[in-house]
Design brief:
It is a single chain. By secondary structure, the protein is an alpha+beta fold. The chain has a single domain, classed as Sandwich (Immunoglobulin-like). The protein contains two helices and ten strands; from the N terminus they run H-E-E-E-E-E-E-E-E-H-E-E. The strands form two sheets. Strands 1, 2, 3, 6 and 8 form a five-stranded antiparallel sheet that branches. Strands 4, 5, 7, 9 and 10 form a five-stranded antiparallel sheet that branches. A hairpin with a 2-residue loop joins strand 4 and strand 5.
Length: about 180
């Protein structure tokens, strides 16, 4: 048997096995990288979409009044934390402040789509409480303050990109003082 025949016999017997081994190695390598990236991104998205809180102290503060009609303006500061090593693009929307039985929309002060690297980013907005509502809340003293809204986050690691969206609901309390002046 000459060398050509031996080589031909070897390749016809083992070419399928070698090709299958190469395909399995490539699939395992890229599949593992994909699963790692996905797990890493899911962790980041879970943090930034669940770890949203009212800044304490000073996250809910009186910032002024207007006349005709009398309106009290309160500034609200929300904090989104990201302890992971990946940056996420976060959008907060449809935020309402519930003060006992009153529902007041939160109007964004600046951008509400921000890049959230490792650390924290603040989202700010204002609510306007009319005079009658404020007087009723001040008569109650401490009231239940609930913040409801939607948060969407997108993050990318290498070629893998993931998006997560959910509603958030934070409950605390606020104290209203009787109007001075």
């Amino acid at each position: 048997m000459d060398i050509r025949t031996k080589a031909k016999t070897f390749f016809s017997n083992w070419l399928g096995v070698i090709l299958a081994a190469v395909i399995v190695a490539l699939a395992a390598t890229f599949g593992g990288m994909y699963l790692y990236a996905r797990s890493r991104l899911d962790n980041t998205l879970a943090w930034v979409t669940q770890d949203i809180n009212l800044v304490v102290p000073g996250g809910f503060t009186a910032s002024g009044t207007t006349e005709n009609p009398l309106t009290y303006i309160y500034h609200v500061t929300l904090r989104v934390d990201n302890p992971s090593g990946d940056t996420a693009s976060v959008t907060i929307s449809d935020v309402n402040i519930l003060l006992d039985t009153y529902t007041i929309p939160l109007v964004a002060d600046g951008e509400w789509t921000k890049s959230v690297p490792t650390g924290e980013v603040l989202f700010e907005g204002d609510i306007s409480i009319n005079g009658d509502t404020f007087t009723a809340l001040a008569a109650r003293g401490t009231v239940r303050l609930e913040i409801k809204g939607n948060i969407t986050a997108t993050a990318q690691y290498n070629w893998v990109k993931r998006t997560s969206a959910r509603t958030f609901d934070r409950i605390t309390s606020a104290e209203f003082a009787a109007p001075t002046s």
